[in-house]
């Protein structure tokens, strides 16, 4: 049975623009157009016209298609749940042949990628008995199949791109027909776009996207300029389910509307400036405070992608021990002494202060293996903590002082790369030493610029961690209000003395 989906009319000619639904299920569809070209309107028209004939799943990053639920009975799946839940729901969707909208609104971009990948994976991995025909529509596909990771982690991109590739490359045999829409062909992974045999190209302005659209439609390069002149809702169609030759079509009307619409001009409210100021700067209400707390809880920061050094440390930790099975457990004191010795070797190099944590950590791991430090090396987080304390010149005597724990707690609220400066001031105050000069502060931060040191001191003072004042001779004194300590007066511009032998605190 051949089912024709009415997408609108050809332009010019006004003859019906029909899409062969069965052919679409076998050959897939790619829609491209800049923001405002009418892509979402086109997808909505396709979904509405084909809803009585085929099961549908919509990957909706902005929550625009949830309005299909009331008119056409689609089930809205809130993506704010675990990946295992999404895979289970997707399997049940295929089993019971229910049309759904996966609402990704409210998730961060990387979370959207992971949620979409989990849901598409559930559709793809369904049991063979449930491989019924399904139209899978993915709006803003460049988010889920980007050409490069960009601001996303490689792990999230690989998972999402793999799911999109399965949909477009291997989904046909499982009854899945991908319909993907994108603003930028140049941002969409080529192996995903290349699997579509039907194309609807809308208004496009960037040369690289116009050239790719013209290539896909088999048009000459000089004809690519036509994409700039297309009106909203007008597309050029090509493909076995649409037309054997490129034809312009105008998308027809839809029955449902998106929750978000194009902005319309409207007059500003008339009110005195003082009233407007009071409205803007009024203290937050109880409802607003509660909403802010809910937003923080709803949007946890995504887990950072492990760096190369983290992976290296994991390999070292998980590597089977080379000692005999009956070897005695490592002596904690011997391990601590070995780690301190390695740290001292690293910081004895004058250039160590200006190397990154990643480089120093690799050196640290190698030296630990050479020295055969028992018990294995610390992970990167512990290494950074030890390095921060060691750079501040904290020796075993200071580290064992009961008051030093307060200094460590006081530094916790600062960014990791500034904690060493706070501990440097704390160590000087605890020892009754002069305030360190800007050159020493800069070295602690891995810089040779006294100007950077002054900016860091100003940053800490603005946030109340320290208070700076000058004595009658202009020498700087730094007080630490949370600890009730202060350094002796010291010349901020003094030349740095040669570095003493590195003192590494026992216990880090």
Automatic annotation (TrEMBL):
Pfam families found in the cross-reference section: DUF87
Domain Helicase HerA central: 11-107
Compositionally biased intervals (Basic and acidic residues): 286-297
SUPFAM superfamilies given in the database record: P-loop containing nucleoside triphosphate hydrolases (SSF52540)
Region feature Disordered, mapped onto this chain: 283-308
Cross-referenced PANTHER family: HELICASE MJ1565-RELATED (PTHR42957:SF1)
Protein name: Putative ATPase
Native source species: Saliniramus fredricksonii
